[in-house]
Design a protein that fits this description.
Length: 441
């Protein structure tokens, strides 16, 4: 039986570059070495095809640094990226084995491509810019897989670096279909170099995926929010509680916590959503402490997004919170009905359902802590800060500063400790239901 062999040659993209030793009117010249290597590789490839009569696959580097090259063999897929500088990266894998994320902190200014189809074990990839200069590459697979190895190495011309990641399929075999653009088929992947753990930079390690929880302290800066009878400001109360909750979330070791604001600064409502997405949020929680014209009203409550408010109090609160952007010159409340409908439609049904599910869990956990809640504790309204299309989001009213009893509780360490415990427990229950964390770990 004739065995089909595929020979693979790869080389860096031929580019115009400054010659290291020669000046030519201050301009740019072609690297003669690069031309020679290209001609030699092409000639060798053609010669092998003629003499051996074998099918040949030739892969050039991608047209953009962020466009991967894929190789597939024996249930494994290799992803390769060409980068201009040595990369600093962090690799995380979700527990279900269907998603891998790589955060690049250096070596990539702009991938030049939004995403595309994968090959072999990897079904697709996409790029997302996070805060600062971090670019996240997300890889998806239809069946469970695991990262077998990841490393980077200088390329032959010493002007570029290659990032290499091998993913091993753990589910059913992946059919060997014809590779698409940027992919090459191979019968065997090159051997993986042995690297001592001590040689790997601390940030360049594979770590378990930790869901990102973004905590939003409402108001801030020139928007104080509600005020208690003794002058306690909502913006300060919710910031202190947000920091306490974030510390507990981070300290659990099960998540990564991020804050939309860490000081007395004002952030537009729409920018809070953008910030959360920039952090790569898996869950968004906005904290508030309301005021009511009727001072007897008290208790905690949880709100989720809905085009129609569940009751008059929910509508009043949403209108009040959404108007806060008017302080900085942006009033979401004056948007047309069509725009409002579009914003609501962007909140995908699955995301809204997830938000409602976690809201119900949060209500139960708050009750377990013996904290007084409103009669209809889970309410619905069109909060601008909850209008994220793909991030489950809730708004938690911690109590009413307009009520003397609630104001006293909100100032106490014990109450803050109990309600943050309840919120963390609710987050645990939500992610345990999704199979992303073991409740009570």
């Amino acid at each position: 039986m004739n065995r089909r062999t595929i020979l693979l040659f790869t080389e860096p993209r031929l580019t115009l570059q400054k010659h290291p030793r020669t000046r030519h009117n201050g301009g740019m010249i072609l690297s003669l070495r690069g031309i020679f290597l290209r001609v030699l590789a092409a000639a060798t490839l053609c010669l092998l095809a003629v003499v051996l009569g074998m099918p040949v696959s030739y892969a050039t580097s991608p047209t953009a640094s962020g466009e991967p090259i894929f190789e597939y063999a024996n249930g494994n897929t290799r992803l390769m990226l060409t980068l201009p500088t040595p990369p600093r990266y962090r690799v995380e894998q979700q527990p279900d084995g269907t998603t891998v994320t790589i955060d690049f902190r250096d070596g990539l200014d702009d991938p030049g491509v939004a995403g595309g189809e994968g090959y072999g074990v990897i079904t697709g990839y996409n790029w997302q810019q996070l805060d600062g200069n971090i670019w996240r590459l997300s890889l998806t697979s239809a069946d469970p897989s695991r990262v077998a190895t990841v490393y980077s190495e200088p390329m032959a011309d010493e002007h570029a670096y290659r990032f290499i990641l091998d993913i091993e399929g753990m589910g059913r075999p992946v059919p060997q279909v014809s590779p698409g653009a940027g992919a090459v088929a191979a019968l065997a992947l090159p051997p993986i170099p042995q690297v001592k753990p001590t040689d790997i930079p601390q940030e360049n390690r594979i770590v378990p995926y930790l869901p990102v929880i973004v905590i939003d302290a409402g108001h801030g800066g020139n928007d104080p929010g509600a005020r208690s009878a003794n002058g306690m400001l909502e913006k300060n109360v919710v910031l202190d509680i947000a920091k306490m909750l974030a510390a507990k979330i981070e300290g659990s070791g099960r998540y990564r916590a991020r804050l939309t604001r860490e000081d007395d600064s004002y952030i537009h409502l729409r920018d809070r959503v953008t910030t959360a997405r920039g952090f790569g949020a898996d869950f968004f929680m906005s904290l508030h402490a309301d005021a009511n014209p009727e001072p007897s009203v008290r208790g905690a409550s949880v709100y989720t997004l809905s085009e129609r408010a569940s009751d008059r109090e929910a509508a009043r609160l949403a209108a009040r919170e959404n108007r806060t952007d008017a302080i900085a010159g942006v009033d979401l409340g004056v948007q047309s009905d069509d725009v409002a409908s579009i914003l609501i439609d962007l909140a995908m049904r699955e995301t809204v359902n997830d938000s409602r599910g976690v809201a119900n869990v949060l209500v139960d956990e708050i009750r377990k802590q013996g904290i007084k809640v409103l009669k209809r504790t889970h309410r619905f309204a069109g909060f601008a800060v909850l209008k994220s299309a793909d991030v489950p989001s809730v708004l938690v009213e911690l109590g009413y500063l307009s009520n003397a009893n609630d104001a006293k509780l909100l100032a106490s360490r014990d109450y803050r400790d109990r309600i943050t415990d309840a919120l963390l427990s609710g987050i645990d229950q939500y992610f345990a239901g999704r199979g992303q964390v073991a409740a009570g770990e």
